[in-house]
Design a protein that fits this description.
Rossmann fold; globular; 26% helix; single chain; alpha/beta; 339 residues
């Protein structure tokens, strides 16, 4: 079997000697059709992160079931599916409260410390698998996972209809967050993004205006000169967090989605207290969010097709990740087609 393996910082390779998965009684075997390249794949290529050496990457998945275990009841061969890649323990306090993204073992997911789906086949527990309606293409099916991230972030943010919002970063997650904010009834949405070519798609997804980071103060003027009620930081570096604290209105909310493990120096942290800011961290989603993402796509309430920049083959993945790691780029979501 062929798949893409993370071998350490700066080294991602296509392997042709992977063993074919064997299906356990509670599992199904999936022929993977599409798998998205995530920003976390790129970050782990650049520097030490949460990926284990020798792990098959890939957690944004769609495919077709080709075999089922003896105990599988809700799936059948031929089903078109996507996968919730989080691997909860099912036994801790949070898992028992349907908050698996807060599991005591999080973050544990396919493609990081457990083999993922950027390979020809993957075996996975039935409970992790979601059937795709016929209205959702397999390309879109591989976008369910990042869509769930944006939806969960907005659900947890306490946003109210008509609230003004700034979204920092318009990569895949930032653009999906804009989509989710529109569905939730947000008021004016302002995007902050250094790559000006991405401003157009931010406007297409629902932003009212888009700015480069050096112009972030313009957003405050557009929000009654007091700043937006909410900021969603989809980057998570010192500069964006500092700007968010400066920009958000007093009594406002900052939702942290982007993650950078190297954050060490937050110069205006005192501003959170002085301005009575609510700062909320977000990680992943739960099973209900996955179902919501599928329903929104099925009902045509969101359109994620424009976010797919290109479709490449499995052998092209290492070069694509290396290119993405070099800095600012025009691509949103690069999708891998696995034949």
């Amino acid at each position: 079997m062929k798949g893409v393996s993370y071998e350490g910082v700066g080294k991602i390779v296509v392997r042709h000697d992977l063993p074919m998965p064997s299906v356990k009684p509670d599992e199904a075997l999936i022929k993977v059709k599409y798998c998205g390249i995530c920003g976390s794949d790129v970050e782990s290529f650049k520097k030490t992160g949460m990926y284990g050496s020798g792990t098959i990457i890939g957690h944004e998945i769609s495919g077709e079931i080709i075999e089922i275990g003896d105990n599988v009841k809700k799936l059948k061969i031929g089903d078109r599916v996507t996968i919730n890649p989080n691997v909860p323990c099912y036994n801790c306090y949070w898992c028992n409260q349907n908050q698996e993204n807060k599991c005591k073992f999080a973050p544990r997911a396919l493609g990081s410390l457990t083999d993922g789906a950027m390979a020809e086949f993957i075996n996975i527990n039935e409970e992790r698998i979601h059937i795709l309606p016929e209205s959702i293409s397999l390309e879109e099916g591989a976008m369910i996972e990042p869509l769930a991230v944006g939806i969960y972030s907005v659900q947890e943010s306490d946003i109210k209809i008509g609230d003004s919002v700034a979204v920092f970063g318009t990569g895949t997650i930032g653009l999906i967050t804009i989509l989710a904010l529109k569905v939730a009834g947000a008021g004016n949405i302002y995007a902050l993004e250094p790559v000006e070519s991405k401003h157009r798609i931010a406007l297409e997804m629902g932003a009212n205006k888009a700015f480069t980071p050096q112009n972030w103060k313009k957003i405050k003027k557009l929000c009654d000169k007091i700043g937006p009620a909410h900021i969603f930081d989809c980057v998570g570096i010192n500069e964006t967090i500092t700007s968010a604290i400066d920009l958000v209105r007093r009594g406002g909310y900052i939702t942290m989605i982007g993650m950078d493990p190297e954050i060490t120096d937050l110069k205006n942290f005192y501003g959170i207290a002085i301005k009575n800011i609510t700062l909320r961290g977000i990680f992943a989603y739960n099973q209900d969010t996955f179902k919501t993402a599928i329903n929104l796509l099925d009902q045509k309430r969101v359109n994620i097709k424009p976010l797919i920049s290109k479709i490449i083959k499995l052998d092209e993945v290492p070069a694509a990740i290396e290119d993405l790691s070099k800095g600012l780029h025009d691509d949103i979501k690069i999708m891998v087609e696995i034949e």
